[in-house]
Design brief:
Elements: E1 2-7, E2 15-19, H1 29-38, E3 44-46, H2 51-57, H3 69-77, H4 79-84, H5 97-106, E4 112-118, E5 123-125, E6 133-134, H6 139-152, E7 156-159, H7 162-168, H8 175-178, E8 187-189, E9 192-194, H9 197-211, E10 219-224, H10 237-253, E11 266-268
Parallel strand pairs: 2-3, 2-11, 4-7, 7-10, 10-11
Antiparallel strand pairs: 1-4, 5-6, 8-9
Helix pairs in contact: 3-5
């Protein structure tokens, strides 16, 4: 579980792209910032606060960055540290959100929100979506986290990867269900009809939040994407492009069966193929090659 501090994503196009640094051949930070801007990507999720990256982002108008746990601890304890990191999302242990929020408020940053990113395995059950429930060992923590998020009107951020469910069990997970291309409902859950796995995964979290007393808490997407290579026949440029295009259109327009019409803040994964990640699949989630050529037409 990790925590992000960030300026709220404004406007009607709340789509960002994750900028990973697990590569030894990636372009310079200034080139990366230029590529974000030329591609029209206004929001960036950064996993570590490298000084050269932060310097390149200065004055760019691009929203979002991250810093490691110890920095959020400093923010929680010292308003001067909060001032230094005011507009950056920050990862941290769960115990820091409330004091961090108070320090940020002390320097007048009411527009900064604090939210938590949790993985899919935070649920002990997720099928059907209405059965979604948090694991018993974190349920009490999630009540506390949800309360903090509700107070600040911040979304709970989750990682959603239909690809992994599909590739691990293609006989049970139809390709069109995983990729937003089914034309008939694949799963019926009471009155809710599911045409895609993404909605089912997100609604399992909505159901889990309902069970702990937070039915109206917003959910956002911290990561979602599809690899272009590494696991044939499930990975190819066409599959990746189709999923990501459909993902973008879906989160901007449709909501989910349990939350229809709700636009979700979403970070797509990832900006570049990263050659130091473990395994061929993990290395090939990028929209761009390290030389900045597009892996497939998208932006």
């Amino acid at each position: 579980m990790s925590t992000i501090i960030n300026g709220k994503i404004p406007g009607s196009h709340p789509i960002g792209v994750c900028y990973g640094l697990n590569g030894d051949n990636l372009p310079s930070p200034s080139e990366v910032v230029g590529l974000y801007k030329s591609s029209g990507i206004e929001f960036l999720r950064l996993y570590e606060p490298r000084s050269d990256v932060l310097e390149a982002l200065r004055g760019s108008g691009i929203v979002v960055a991250l810093c490691p746990n110890e920095d959020l601890a400093a923010i929680a304890q010292r308003p001067d540290a909060a001032d230094a990191w005011a507009h950056l999302p920050i990862t941290s242990p769960q115990q820091w959100p409330t004091p961090a929020r108070h320090s940020l408020a002390a320097i007048g940053l009411a527009n900064v929100t604090i939210t938590t990113v949790i993985p899919g395995n935070a649920l002990e059950s997720s099928f059907p979506p209405s059965a979604g429930a948090f694991s018993s060992d974190i349920s009490d923590v999630m009540v506390s986290v949800a309360g903090i998020l509700a107070t600040s009107d911040a979304p709970l951020m989750i990682n959603v990867y239909p690809y992994f469910a599909y590739a691990s069990d293609p006989s049970q997970v139809p390709a069109n269900y995983a990729s937003f291309t089914a034309t008939d409902p694949v799963v019926t859950d009471g009155s809710f009809l599911y045409f895609n796995l993404f909605d089912a995964m997100v609604d399992a979290f909505h159901a889990a939040l309902e069970k702990i007393g937070y039915p109206d808490l917003k959910v956002g997407i911290a990561e979602s994407g599809w690899p272009s290579s590494g696991n044939d026949p499930y990975t190819c440029n066409g599959n990746a492009m189709s999923y990501n295009r459909n993902l973008m259109n879906h989160v901007l327009q449709n909501g989910t069966p349990r939350r229809p019409g709700k636009v979700m803040e979403t970070f797509m994964f990832a900006m570049f193929n990263e050659n130091l990640k473990r395994g061929a699949v993990e290395q090939n989630f990028g929209f761009f090659y390290p030389n900045k050529d597009p892996v497939y037409p998208f932006w």
